[in-house]
């Protein structure tokens, strides 16, 4: 029988800890001193991970928010206001979450009312808790009201698992991390979660599943595998989350995700939630297939970065990129994540750095899962403070003390840039992102310049020249061809659909947003209510979210050299830039 084992030292992690978490405070039948101590230790270990909130945390309240769709509920201003189950309140306290972030303020009440949701908020701003808490609350409520939710008993009879919630993630490491986070919130609720992902033997995951669970966090391939083997059945799914929703719906994942969703109860009988920091309009359109009467939440502009990350562009010559990297790394304090374009380059750069005497390790798709997890572990604990990575580490990973993200190779699209640099500057902490730019990067520069302008970052003169030279001029100011800013996602795409819905409203909070989007709004088809309501009573927007004007940009032609290939002067200036950033 599950849940009847006395916990042992070895149950500090993995399923042992999960099964112990089924005990409720009042139901501790081993109430002796030793057990209590063990339980306290398990609790301490469980809650000690995660990024502590940084000095900029209160700035989140000033970020403009848009909530659109029919009958949107009122935001909460404290976790208490959400009236979560008392064990969940306790677990939130243990996580040291003093107050909700904006995405939590708006998403928690929306999800609690049973609505589907597409939510877009900056990297590191607490999206994970924004969906897990209201899901866990509803599962607890429904279980206590109907007392029919013991899926474990049911599943052990049928030797099949019937999860009530599925959370899909694009990478194995993110799935592992999200399940760890889920475990915190489920602590002592009597509910458990299991993570399943590819690249490792199925044995342990199978045993965990057979012990029963309410929530499965998974990468799509492995979950599909377990369904085909008759281990998991999705008939009883009440909640489905696509974490990094835009990635889960892009061409790489869409067929698998679609197949999984088809195995769940149909629209309206399950709650569908999609979260990401980026949601390009074309992906929003695709997502319609899975959503019903959903609320769209945008914290800040869809696809933007947070303003706590200092972003710097450095012009380099492809030939001496590596030397530039070494120079830079010698001066970087704290953990440093270096993104490269290919798996081969990841191995190559790692080896070269080690030869230079630097403590580097790499993570990419050609490494075994064991190696990938080892690389992340030694990076996390600081034994190897430089992690060279492909985009496998670009999304979702929440690692404290990542002070630097270096784009050794820039990605091909702005969404990947946003996610990559979002590994630093999390939860109100400051961070630095440095991107090497070569002649072959002209394709991303327009979007990048726009993003930097928006966040009041320095834009070197050579960069503007480069963007203009290649693309026939980049877009400055408010008017963009085809009525949309280049490249990345914007607002709720339904607003531009004719007669979307009679009940459709779009509410805005922190009115600084108006400056930026005023013109777009006039053209929108939906009805808009502009409310002055602000749950924190703060309507000022001074965090740089209104689009920057030309005044915010300095002319850096002088300090970064001209538009030709990286010259000696460039290199000297690059060094000066590194020094400035470091100091
Ligand atoms: N209300 C809160 N108060 C303090 N810390 C919080 C709060 N909410 C979340 N955090 C912490 O902030 C960190 C980032 O949260 P999370 O990983 O959920 O961000 P995210 O928005 O999902 O980021 P990404 O877009 O990169 O996936 C975590 O370590 C989490 O524990």
SSE order and pairing:
Blueprint: H1 15-20, H2 33-47, E1 65-70, H3 86-94, H4 102-112, E2 117-120, H5 127-146, H6 151-158, E3 165-168, H7 172-186, E4 193-196, H8 203-210, E5 215-218, H9 220-228, E6 239-243, H10 245-248, H11 254-262, E7 271-276, H12 281-287, E8 295-299, E9 309-315, H13 321-331, E10 335-339, H14 343-355, E11 360-363, H15 369-380, E12 386-389, E13 402-407, H16 414-421, E14 431-437, H17 442-454, H18 461-471, E15 504-509, H19 513-523, E16 527-529, H20 557-560, H21 568-582
Parallel strand pairs: 2-7, 2-8, 3-5, 3-6, 4-5, 6-7, 9-14, 10-12, 10-13, 11-12, 13-14, 15-16
Antiparallel strand pairs: 1-8, 1-15
The structure holds adenosine-5'-triphosphate.
Adenosine-5'-triphosphate (ATP) binds next to helix 5.
Q: What does this molecule look like?
A:
With 583 residues, the chain is an alpha/beta fold. The protein folds into two domains: 9-47 and 63-299, Rossmann fold (3-Layer(aba) Sandwich); 309-478 and 557-582, P-loop containing nucleotide triphosphate hydrolases (Rossmann fold, 3-Layer(aba) Sandwich). It has 21 helices and 16 strands. The strands form two sheets. The chain has a ten-stranded mixed β-sheet with strand order 4-5-3-6-7-2-8-1-15-16. It has a six-stranded parallel β-sheet with strand order 9-14-13-10-12-11, sandwiched between helices. Helix 5 (127-146) crosses helix 7 (172-186). Residues 1-26, 152-157, 471-489 and 513-569 have low confidence and may be disordered. The site of adenosine-5'-triphosphate (ATP) has 22 residues, from helix 5.
């Amino acid at each position: 029988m599950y849940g009847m084992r006395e916990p042992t030292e070895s149950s500090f992690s993995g399923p042992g800890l999960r099964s112990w978490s089924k005990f409720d405070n009042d139901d501790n039948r081993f109430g002796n001193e030793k057990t209590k101590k063990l339980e306290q230790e398990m609790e301490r270990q469980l809650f000690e991970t995660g990024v502590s909130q940084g000095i900029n945390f209160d700035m989140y309240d000033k970020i403009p928010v848009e909530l659109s769709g029919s009958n949107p509920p009122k935001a909460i201003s404290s976790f208490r206001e959400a009236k979560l189950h008392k064990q969940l309140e306790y677990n939130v306290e243990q996580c040291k979450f003093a107050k909700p972030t904006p995405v939590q303020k708006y998403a928690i009440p929306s999800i609690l009312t049973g609505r589907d949701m597409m939510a877009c908020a900056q990297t590191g701003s607490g999206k994970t808790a924004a969906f897990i808490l209201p899901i866990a609350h509803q599962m607890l409520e429904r279980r206590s009201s109907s007392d029919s939710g013991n899926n474990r008993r049911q599943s052990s009879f049928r030797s099949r698992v019937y999860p009530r919630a599925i959370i899909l993630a694009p990478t194995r490491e993110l799935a592992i991390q999200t399940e760890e986070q889920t475990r915190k919130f489920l602590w002592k609720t009597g509910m458990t979660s299991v993570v399943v992902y590819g690249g490792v033997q199925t044995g342990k995951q199978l045993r965990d599943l057979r012990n029963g669970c309410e929530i499965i966090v998974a990468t799509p391939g492995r979950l599909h595998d377990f369904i085909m083997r008759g281990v998991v059945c999705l008939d009883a799914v009440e909640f489905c989350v696509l974490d990094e929703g835009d990635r889960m719906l892009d061409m790489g994942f869409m067929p698998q995700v679609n197949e999984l969703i088809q195995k769940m109860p149909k629209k309206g009988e399950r709650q569908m939630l999609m979260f990401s920091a980026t949601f390009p309009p074309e992906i929003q359109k695709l997502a319609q297939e899975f959503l019903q009467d959903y609320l769209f939440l945008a914290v800040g502009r869809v696809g933007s970065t947070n303003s706590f990350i200092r972003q710097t562009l450095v012009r380099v010559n492809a030939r001496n990129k590596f030397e530039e990297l070494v120079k830079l790394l010698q001066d970087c304090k704290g953990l440093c994540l270096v993104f490269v374009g290919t798996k081969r380059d990841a191995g190559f750069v790692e080896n070269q750095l080690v030869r230079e005497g630097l403590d580097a390790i790499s993570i990419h798709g050609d490494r075994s899962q064991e190696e990938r997890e080892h690389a992340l572990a030694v990076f996390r604990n600081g034994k190897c403070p430089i992690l060279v990575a492909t985009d496998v580490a670009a999304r979702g990973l929440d690692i404290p003390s990542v002070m630097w993200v270096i784009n050794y190779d820039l990605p091909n699209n702005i969404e990947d840039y946003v996610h990559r640099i979002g590994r630093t500057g999390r939860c109100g902490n400051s961070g630095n992102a440095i991107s090497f730019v070569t002649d072959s990067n002209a394709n991303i520069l327009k979007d990048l310049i726009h993003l930097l302008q928006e966040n009041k970052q320095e834009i070197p003169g050579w960069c503007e020249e480069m963007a203009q030279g290649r693309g026939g001029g980049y877009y400055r100011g408010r008017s963009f061809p085809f009525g949309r800013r280049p490249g990345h996602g914007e607002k709720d795409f339904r607003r531009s659909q004719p007669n979307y819905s009679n009940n459709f409203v779009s509410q805005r909070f922190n009115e600084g947003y108006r400056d930026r989007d005023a013109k777009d709004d006039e053209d929108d088809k939906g009805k808009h209510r502009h409310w002055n309501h602000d749950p924190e009573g703060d309507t000022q927007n001074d965090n740089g979210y209104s689009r920057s004007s030309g005044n915010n940009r300095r002319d850096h032609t002088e300090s970064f050299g001209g538009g030709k290939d990286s010259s000696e002067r460039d290199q000297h200036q690059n060094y000066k830039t590194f020094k400035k950033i470091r100091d």
